Amino acid sequence: MTQQEIIDRLENITWLMAEVENTYVKNELEEITEALRTQFNYSDAYEQEVKDVLNYDETMFNLDNIKIR
Fold first, then answer.
1. CB burial string 47-64: b at 16+ within 10 A, e below
2. How far is the C-alpha of 42 from the C-alpha of 59, rounded, in Å?
3. Dihedral of CA 42/43/46/47: which sign?
4. What is the pTM of this model?
5. H helices present in 1-69, as ranges
6. pLDDT tens, 15-68?
7. DSSP character for 42?
8. Burial classification of residue 21, based on how many CB atoms lie within 10 Å of its CB (0-12 exposed, 13-18 middle, 19 or more buried)
9. How many C-beta atoms lie closer than 10 Å to residue 9's C-beta?
């Protein structure tokens, strides 16, 4: 399941809980959804930062082109 699918499913369940007026569960799901969004954004930003520092694309290209004699 992708990050977006997780968020979408949580939002659908949150909507359902609002429709049946289960405020406690709705509020908990909203809090969980926001925490996941924050974590996903942090994780994505960290991954990009690591790639930038390691110059990932160029490094992978160089490793692919190593010739052992």
1. eeeeeeeeeeeeeeeeee
2. 24
3. negative
4. 0.60
5. 3-19, 23-54, 56-64
6. 998 899 889 998 999 999 999 999 999 898 998 888 888 888 888 888 888 888
7. H
8. exposed
9. 12
